[in-house]
């Protein structure tokens, strides 16, 4: 049986259709770790995220995959490539000259658990490997258990942990 969605390669021209998909990620962050509140608004989160994506599209080897059902975007994955020396990886681990970063992976709640996240991540990895990049990193909130299970099932392992001390928290 084929998947109910279609995948296509996107571009910077697709940034505006990603806003509700990013909002779903932002909501998942807040739901999975309410103890880290206060969170910024959806509009502020998207403003910052959109600017990041625009910057990434100005670089080579950035890839966006968009999943749709009947022309309705239901998920996306975005990855880019960094020179290893410009990352936190170089002073500790032996890797290739370039590292791929899975910047974002979003699946609308009603499609989570359907295999879409796995397909998006696998296709991003294939694209990065075709670009000559074998070493990959991604970030995930430690409380996002579903995402952690997906990433670990696909071979990712905890590597680096950020702790935060932000004003406004109890």
From TrEMBL:
<feature type="domain" description="N-acetyltransferase">
    <location>
        <begin position="23"/>
        <end position="170"/>
    </location>
</feature>
<dbReference type="InterPro" id="IPR016181">
    <property type="entry name" value="Acyl_CoA_acyltransferase"/>
</dbReference>
<dbReference type="InterPro" id="IPR000182">
    <property type="entry name" value="GNAT_dom"/>
</dbReference>
<keyword id="KW-0012">Acyltransferase</keyword>
<keyword id="KW-0808">Transferase</keyword>
<dbReference type="Pfam" id="PF00583">
    <property type="entry name" value="Acetyltransf_1"/>
</dbReference>
<dbReference type="InterPro" id="IPR050832">
    <property type="entry name" value="Bact_Acetyltransf"/>
</dbReference>
<protein>
    <submittedName>
        <fullName>GNAT family N-acetyltransferase</fullName>
    </submittedName>
</protein>
């Amino acid at each position: 049986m084929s998947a109910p969605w279609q995948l296509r390669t996107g571009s910077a021209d697709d940034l505006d259709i990603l806003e509700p998909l990013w909002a779903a990620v932002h909501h998942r962050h807040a739901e999975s770790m309410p103890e880290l509140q206060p969170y910024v608004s959806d509009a502020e989160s998207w403003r910052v995220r959109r600017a990041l994506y625009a910057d990434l599209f100005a670089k080579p080897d950035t890839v966006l995959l968009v999943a749709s059902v009947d022309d309705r975007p239901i998920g996306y994955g975005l990855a880019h490539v960094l020179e290893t020396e410009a990352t936190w990886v170089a002073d500790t681990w032996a890797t290739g000259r370039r590292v791929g970063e899975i910047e974002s992976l979003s699946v609308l709640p009603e499609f989570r658990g359907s295999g879409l996240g796995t397909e998006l991540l696998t296709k991003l990895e294939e694209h990065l490997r075709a670009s000559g990049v074998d070493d990959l990193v991604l970030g995930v909130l430690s409380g996002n258990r579903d995402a952690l299970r997906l990433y670990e099932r696909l071979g990712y392992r905890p590597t680096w942990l950020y702790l935060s001390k932000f004003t406004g928290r109890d």
